[in-house]
Every structure is written in structure tokens, then in C-alpha cells.
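Whiteboard transcription, Tuesday session. T.W. wrote the C-alpha cells on the left side:
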């Protein structure tokens, strides 16, 4: 195994997966709540970092899908004011298709990873994440494994630490504060990504189970009542990101789920590995 991060061993267990929270998204098939059994496995304490991904690329010469396509999607608020006009996504104009954006240059050709070695790698597709896993001797977690681990032993709580978003006024994840997408008050300390070990861990030792970057899972996006490998057009992503805000996307809840096509990359999607 070439993976150099911390893997947390978790025993077999049974947990209640999903939610019927009225603040959720029924269209995402978050429910119904059902009992799931998990076999023993291990999962990384945090998402794969830029430094870890760089070691993989150096060893293998892997070229990501964003690099092959020559473009990836960047949040407009991270681009400098003088950035040349770019094509916006019709239904989400805060997303811009930026030529030359990739994992090494998250905001385009004039950006770099300076000061971000310990931040999660982004602009990686599910295909790229799978390639890393094969090299490192690990795998992507299944969706039930991801949720079991992200809950940290808590039962049907909204977040990895409980039901209150900011207990005692303390921010425990990297999401958007203020008015999306025009103003981020940065109350949690971050505009874009945060270090992979930012904020305290949950009860199992996992960092950033809510917010920071969406994390790819092994599964195709299927009805939550029957999760599994399946088939489909989109792969499951979990956890939400630094762009999530309660006004439009409170998918930083631990039961929330979404999807994207396996070859898609954006500036807010990364991954965490598992084994066993």
C-alpha cells in the first residue's frame, strides 16, 4: 500500500442511514431512514491532499480529466476582478468554465498551490480518484460506509458533531456564511478550501465530514432505499463544500447526497479513501 495518510479502522456495525429531515431534499432520495449493516473497514481521517495527489502524479505521470479537457469549473468569487470573461453555467452563473484550471492551478493558469499543500486536491474527477486509489492500494468508500463514518457514532444527528450548526457560536466546518453568492463574511475563516485537518474530528476521528469539498464515493447515484454499486450516469458525492449555504444548498448535512458524472471536475470536489 502506497497510501501515506491515516486510516481509521472501524468495526462492523449497524446504523440508521438517511434522513426524513424536513429541511432536506426529497428529490435527492435522502430517505427513507433505514437500518444498514456495515462490515469492518478502514477510512481516511481526511480527504486526499494536494501533496498526496502530487506524489501519485509524480510516480505515475497521471493526467487528470481536467488537464485532458483543458478546462474545469471554478467558482467566480475566487477569480480576480481583472480575470477575462468566461462561459458561465446557465443555471448556476457563479460557476465559470476556466481554461487551464486543474488540480495544480485551481483558479486557472495564473494560480498555484502555494500555501495549499495540505488542502484537499480539487479538479479531480471520479475517474482520477479511482486511478489514485489503484496506485495507492486503497479504494473509494461506498456510500453507506461514508455516511457511517461521517456520523462518528452519533444516531440520526444532522451534522458529524450534533444537531446544532454552530454550538456555542463555534464554527465546525467550512461552508458559506453571509449572502450567497455575493458576500461571504468568512466567519469560519475560509473563502475557498481549508486544510484537510481543519476543524476538530468527529467521534471516529474524521475531519471535514461536512463542508470543505464534496467527496466522491464508489457508488452510482441510485435511490437511497437501495444503495449499492448499481449503474447509472452519475456517481455519488457526499459532504457538501465551502460553497454550501442554507439558502439554496444545505447539503452539508451528514445524510445529504448529490451526484456528478464520472469525468466531471470542479474546484469544490475531492475525495477520501477507504480500505478493507
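and on the right, the sequence the group agreed on:
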Amino acid at each position: 500500500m502506497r497510501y501515506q495518510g491515516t486510516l481509521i479502522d472501524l468495526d462492523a456495525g449497524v446504523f440508521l442511514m438517511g434522513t426524513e429531515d424536513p429541511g432536506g431534499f426529497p428529490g435527492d432520495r435522502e430517505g427513507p431512514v433505514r437500518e444498514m449493516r456495515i462490515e469492518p473497514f478502514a477510512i481516511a481521517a481526511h480527504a486526499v491532499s494536494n501533496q498526496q495527489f502530487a506524489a501519485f502524479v509524480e510516480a505515475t505521470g497521471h493526467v487528470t480529466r481536467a488537464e485532458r479537457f483543458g478546462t474545469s469549473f471554478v467558482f467566480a468569487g475566487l477569480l480576480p476582478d481583472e480575470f477575462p470573461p468566461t462561459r458561465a453555467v446557465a443555471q448556476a452563473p457563479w460557476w465559470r468554465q476556466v481554461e487551464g484550471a486543474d488540480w495544480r492551478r485551481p483558479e486557472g493558469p495564473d494560480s498555484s498551490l502555494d500555501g495549499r499543500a495540505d488542502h484537499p486536491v480539487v479538479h479531480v474527477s471520479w475517474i482520477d480518484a479511482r486511478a489514485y486509489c489503484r496506485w495507492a492500494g486503497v479504494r473509494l468508500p461506498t456510500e453507506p460506509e461514508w455516511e457511517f463514518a461521517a456520523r462518528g457514532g452519533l444516531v440520526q444527528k444532522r451534522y458529524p458533531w450534533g444537531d446544532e450548526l454552530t454550538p456555542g457560536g463555534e464554527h465546525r466546518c467550512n461552508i458559506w456564511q453571509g449572502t450567497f453568492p455575493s458576500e461571504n463574511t468568512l466567519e469560519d475563516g475560509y473563502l475557498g478550501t481549508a486544510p484537510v485537518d481543519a476543524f476538530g474530528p468527529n467521534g471516529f476521528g474524521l475531519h471535514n465530514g461536512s463542508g470543505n469539498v464534496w467527496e466522491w464515493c464508489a457508488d452510482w447515484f441510485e435511490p437511497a432505499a437501495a444503495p449499492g454499486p448499481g449503474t447509472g450516469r452519475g456517481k455519488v458525492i457526499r459532504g457538501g463544500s465551502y460553497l454550501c449555504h442554507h439558502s439554496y444548498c444545505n447539503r452539508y448535512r451528514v445524510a445529504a447526497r448529490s451526484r456528478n458524472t464520472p469525468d466531471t471536475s470542479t474546484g469544490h470536489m475531492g475525495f477520501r479513501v477507504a480500505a478493507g
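Someone added at the bottom: Helices lie at 50-60, 65-69, 126-136, 143-151.
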